[in-house]
Task: inverse folding
């Protein structure tokens, strides 16, 4: 047992050291984005045109929305890898015409579907205490299989008008998709910062055992987090569908992986959150920019996958080394 | 920090589910499917589950120390494309070397840096899958004849697949039950701190398990490529989660310390019989993924975990 | 404890020489000094007690000898030569065997496998299980333990597991054997076996370090006693030269009387705060019935592992399926049934303080303000705005005398005593009026102990009720108003603490219910 004698530093750390320390503690995504922009400036300067940057920003919007959900899960020591399946299902529901209903009705159905998926995930994770990676991967398998089987009978079609409007149109120079992203980002960030729910998320991430023993409604919080996560996945799918214009089975296939990478790069590690809401959002942009850069170098889909894998691995190792220990 | 308590049969993890399921499946198919006992079907089943059996044994090792490796599938895929891209004598050693490299990467990330095994293997799975697609974008190519014969041939009228299975099971059993290494794996999986206090090295064996698991992927890839006689960069895709499902169905506790070779094998048989059943009954192949997902959910719901979170 | 019979110990000879010498050992954990300049020697062929209050540094010092920690300064001499070990395995090879307080057995390995883990016998490269079994049986026979070596250790009772731990240490045939609070996990029979074994080991020339703070044992079997206090060496001398009170004074550094705040007699009409009827923490197991009144501090005493923890945790809502009734009565007399859900229990106004504050009690990476603030959210709906009264937090910190830079200090940097106060502060801020406490002063220095006792007493005086468990009998005798002695999961005696003595409590703890009638 340690023998405690209160012992606090009497000398205040010099201001300059404190500033440098704060800078170094910033999420990797800030430095990464700067580095990539510099790299592009040297090798592919046309990527830095404002028009293209805005295009990349629009590409990032769906990822940014998904990141909101993923970062919430990760802060709670959980994870949601079912985004691919959810996106496939949403794309199919909206475009296959299986359900002959009006567009607003279909949108509502998709949102309810998202709630159902999130609730099911949360049931296994929070009540049965199962591994969230396995549960959400299994969910992705199930959804993917069901949608693929259905699509053999009836192929997906065109995206409905409203979604196409949201996904492709601009207001001034800003794409509506980006506005939707911001419209979700700001309230969510504010809510997490000021609400009781946000405090509980922080506590559970810091020590789930202490949270359980001190009466924090762990199950309710995790439930809500996963429902929100799936809802964000649904909105993200709307944005992608709107932009692409047609339903397809590969919509959102790497949404889960990219959102995880963005979350890790953005400073949110399991159980803690040093990146706030901005870090992961910047990381999302960084990833999209990186993929575009790689494409401009001639690297196709395989190259993108290798980049995804390498980025996640390096980011995870970097954070593990920095000082977060990840419990099993 | 207490760990997994042994179940019905001690730390083998065998119980009602793991022993009963294969029997139930067997009975169901025997009565429900017409061609179940035909020679063709039995050889078919054997062929199909051989690759999964090999990979599940690798997954067993990693699960025993409390980890997980979902990148084995992409190791299979990578092996497959390498075998059709390089000359006969170079291909297999190169594939093995790459398998070791993947395993070392996983192991170093998990055991030395403390990254969560699922995140690390998810990352390596994506990377290796991309690499496989880079080397060869579609199925095809010619496989060296010697490998095809090894996979498809017969010895003493029994299919080669059976020998592959037996060899894998024998090797795994020797490792787990004959060597000190195996006993220490059970100790590490149960409580790594206590094991370390007893003088057991923890990092080394953990690393070894991940390397062995990736190598099992390579071996399974060699077998599968020989059987199909073609290279296919998406060959290994279902095996990652399938191997986890198989070991979970076999009573292996994913939190570590409990499991057995018999259990992993039984779980593989169950999964193989289910797939076979679906084929015989004409169920759409797309539902296979759905079924795996549902089975996985059931299997992990039955496991009681102490750890909270990911 | 004088209820056992043991072989008379041989007089300390000193002829066998010094086996272990500590020279100027200093150790810090994250800027908190655990040990400062500790120096003394232990002689071969003696039983050497290492004693002191909780947090004195006994375990830390012995862990260094066992190779689990390295000293920041100073050195340890083993047989005259410096002990340079990097891990427990090397310490084992050097001849130091340790029987830890927390069993280091692997529950999924058999007794034989546990005994030989790390040095399994081999034949032709493969494990020789036959030899392992035979040798394991031999070892157990030598110390007089009768267990099936093929049983998994997870299936053994706690006391049996501890005997296997002892067997493991014995098998090493080391020069130095360290026992860390051994009798905590043993029953009377096991204690007898242990003392016989220790005597044998002593006679064969080993040095036995015996960590304990139980007076009875120290005076019974230990030849030499070393007292540590606040991480410093106080005194090492022959046990025969000490008296009980003298030893206590050395350990505590002040009169016990000043450590505990004065008790007020409970008024006869004090309302009930917590009523427990036929409550079994595990369905089908032993049940208890008792009440805790407002203004009282009630202690669940007894030997370790007799069910006190289970009772408290089940009341707190942590046990899965208890049977029976537990009700909280609020100040207006309304009753709320305590369901097996922590959230419901906390809503009802009952707070739980676990013994392991680092892993279950505090949010170490968060600040004091966040930790205490979470208590204020007890009744808040999920979507509401988090109303944290920062002024109240500052008030509480002042009232509890939490020594920290300010409320934004991260809790992990605080001392044990201050951490404990933050935990209590969280419940005070939450406005609960019944506290369930496990080990109120584990790992807390003496100064903070007095403050924590004062806090609990004030809480009770203002109408709260406290139910606590503790392994330190003096705590029960000094702090509590009533002591409920627990044995085998049942309450075997109820004593007013003011008139109870250590002997009385231990008698009930060891022997159980007196012949006359049931107790309430």
Result:
């Amino acid at each position: 047992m340690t023998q405690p004698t209160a012992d606090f530093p009497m000398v205040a750390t010099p201001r300059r050291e404190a500033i440098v320390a704060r800078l170094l503690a910033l999420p990797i995504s800030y430095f990464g984005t700067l580095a990539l922009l510099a790299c592009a400036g040297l090798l592919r300067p046309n990527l830095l045109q404002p028009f293209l940057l805005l295009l990349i920003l629009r590409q990032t919007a769906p990822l940014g929305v998904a990141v909101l959900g993923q970062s919430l899960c990760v802060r709670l020591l959980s994870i949601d890898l079912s985004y691919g399946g959810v996106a496939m299902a949403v794309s199919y529901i909206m475009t296959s015409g299986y359900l002959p209903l009006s567009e607003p009705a279909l949108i509502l159905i998709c949102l309810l579907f998202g709630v159902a998926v999130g609730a099911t995930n949360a049931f296994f994770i929070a009540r049965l205490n199962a591994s969230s990676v396995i549960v959400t991967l299994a969910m992705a398998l199930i959804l993917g299989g069901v949608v693929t089987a259905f699509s053999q009978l009836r192929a997906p079609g065109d995206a409905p008008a409203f979604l196409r409007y949201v996904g492709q149109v601009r207001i001034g120079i800003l794409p509506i998709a980006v506005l939707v992203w911001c419209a979700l980002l700001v309230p969510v960030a504010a809510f997490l910062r000021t609400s009781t729910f946000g405090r509980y998320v922080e506590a559970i991430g810091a020590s789930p055992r202490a949270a359980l023993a001190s009466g924090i409604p762990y199950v309710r919080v995790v439930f809500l987090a996963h429902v929100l996560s799936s809802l964000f996945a649904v909105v993200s799918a709307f944005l992608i569908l709107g932009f692409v214009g047609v339903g397809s089975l590969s919509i959102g296939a790497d949404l889960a992986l990219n959102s995880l990478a963005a979350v890790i790069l953005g400073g949110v590690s399991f159980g803690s959150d040093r990146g706030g809401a901005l870090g992961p959002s910047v990381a999302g942009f960084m990833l999209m920019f990186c993929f575009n850069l790689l494409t401009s170098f001639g690297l196709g889909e395989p190259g993108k996958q290798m980049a995804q894998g390498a980025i996640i691995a390096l980011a995870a190792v970097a954070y593990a080394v920095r000082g977060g220990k990840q419990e099993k | 920090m207490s760990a997994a308590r042994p179940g019905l049969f001690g730390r083998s993890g065998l119980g009602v589910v793991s022993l009963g399921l294969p029997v139930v499946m067997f009975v169901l198919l025997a009565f429900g499917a017409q061609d179940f006992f035909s020679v063709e079907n039995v050889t078919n089943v054997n062929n199909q589950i051989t690759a999964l059996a090999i990979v599940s044994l690798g997954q067993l090792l990693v699960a025993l120390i409390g980890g997980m490796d979902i990148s084995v599938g992409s190791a299979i895929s990578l092996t497959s494309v390498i075998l059709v891209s390089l000359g006969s004598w170079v291909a297999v050693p190169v594939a093995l070397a790459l398998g070791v490299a993947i395993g070392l990467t996983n192991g170093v990330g998990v055991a030395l840096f403390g990254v969560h095994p699922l995140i690390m293997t998810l990352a390596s799975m994506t990377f290796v899958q991309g690499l496989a697609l880079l080397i060869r974008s579609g199925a095809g190519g010619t496989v060296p004849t010697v490998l095809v014969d090894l996979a498809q041939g017969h010895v003493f009228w029994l299919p080669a697949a059976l020998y592959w299975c037996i060899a894998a099971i024998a090797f795994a059993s020797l490792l787990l039950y004959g060597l000190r290494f195996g006993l220490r794996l059970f100790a590490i999986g149960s409580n790594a701190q206590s094991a370390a206090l007893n003088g057991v090295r923890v990092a080394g064996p953990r690393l070894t398990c991940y390397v062995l698991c990736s190598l099992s992927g390579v071996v399974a890839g060699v077998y599968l490529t020989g059987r199909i006689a073609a290279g296919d960069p998406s060959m290994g895709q279902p095996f990652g989660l399938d191997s986890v499902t198989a070991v979970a169905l076999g009573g292996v506790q994913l939190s570590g310390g409990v499991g057995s070779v018999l259990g992993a094998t039984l779980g593989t048989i169950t999964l193989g019989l289910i797939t076979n059943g679906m084929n015989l009954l004409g169920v759409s192949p797309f539902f296979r993924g759905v079924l795996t997902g549902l089975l996985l959910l059931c299997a992990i719901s039955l496991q009681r975990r102490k750890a909270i979170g990911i | 404890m004088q209820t056992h019979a043991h072989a008379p110990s041989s007089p300390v000879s000193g002829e066998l020489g010094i086996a272990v010498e500590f020279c100027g050992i200093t150790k810090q954990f994250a800027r908190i000094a655990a040990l400062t300049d500790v120096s003394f020697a232990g002689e071969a062929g003696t039983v050497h007690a290492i004693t002191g209050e909780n947090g004195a540094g006994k375990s830390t010092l012995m862990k260094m000898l066992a190779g689990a920690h390295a000293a920041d300064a100073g050195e340890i001499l083993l047989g005259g030569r410096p002990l340079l070990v990097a891990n427990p395995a090397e310490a084992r090879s050097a001849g130091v065997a340790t029987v830890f307080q927390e069993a280091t057995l692997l529950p999924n390995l058999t007794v034989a496998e546990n005994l030989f883990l790390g040095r399994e016998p081999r034949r032709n490269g493969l494990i020789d299980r036959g030899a392992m079994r035979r040798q394991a049986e031999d070892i157990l026979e030598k110390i007089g333990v009768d267990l099936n070596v093929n049983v998994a250790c997870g299936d053994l009772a706690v006391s049996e597991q501890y005997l296997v731990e002892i067997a493991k240490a014995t098998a090493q045939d080391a020069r130095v054997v360290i026992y860390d609070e051994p009798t905590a996990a043993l029953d009377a029979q096991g204690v007898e076996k242990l003392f016989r074994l220790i005597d044998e080991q002593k006679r064969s020339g080993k040095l036995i370090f015996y960590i304990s703070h139980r007076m009875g044992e120290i005076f019974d079997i230990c030849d030499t006693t070393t007292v540590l206090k606040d991480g410093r060496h106080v005194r090492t001398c022959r046990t025969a030269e000490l008296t009980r009170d003298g030893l206590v004074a050395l350990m505590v550094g002040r009169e016990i009387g000043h450590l505990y705040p004065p008790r007020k007699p409970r008024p006869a009409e004090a309302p009930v705060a917590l009523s427990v009827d036929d409550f079994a923490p595990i369905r089908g197991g032993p049940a208890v019935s008792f009440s805790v009144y407002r203004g009282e501090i009630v202690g669940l005493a007894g030997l370790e592992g007799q069910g006190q923890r289970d009772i408290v945790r089940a009341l707190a809502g942590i046990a899965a399926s208890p049977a029976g009734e537990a009700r909280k009565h609020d100040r207006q007399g309304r009753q709320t049934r305590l369901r097996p859900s922590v959230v419901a229990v906390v809503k009802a106004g009952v707070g739980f303080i676990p013994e392991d504050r680092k892993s279950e009690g505090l949010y170490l990476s968060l600040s004091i303000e966040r930790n205490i603030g979470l208590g204020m959210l007890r009744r808040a709906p999920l979507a509401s705005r988090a109303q944290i009264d920062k002024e109240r937090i500052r008030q509480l910190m002042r009232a509890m005398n939490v020594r920290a830079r300010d409320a934004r200090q991260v809790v992990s940097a605080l001392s044990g005593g201050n951490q404990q106060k933050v935990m209590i502060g969280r419940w005070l801020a939450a406005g609960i009026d019944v506290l369930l406490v496990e080990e109120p002063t584990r790992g807390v220095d003496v100064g903070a102990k007095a403050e924590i006792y004062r806090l609990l007493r004030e809480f009770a005086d203002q109408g709260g009720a406290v139910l606590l468990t503790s392994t330190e009998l003096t705590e029960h005798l000094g702090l509590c108003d009533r002591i409920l002695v627990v044995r085998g999961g049942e309450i075997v005696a109820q004593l007013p603490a003011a008139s109870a003595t250590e002997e009385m409590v231990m008698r009930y703890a060891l022997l159980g219910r007196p012949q006359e009638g049931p107790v309430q």
About this structure: Residues 90 and 110 of chain A are 6 Å apart (CA to CA). The radius of gyration of chain A is 21 Å. Chain A touches chain C at residues 1-8, 194-200, 202-203, 206-207, 209-217, 220-221, 224, 272 (CB under 8 Å). The beta strands of chain A are 170-171, 174-175.
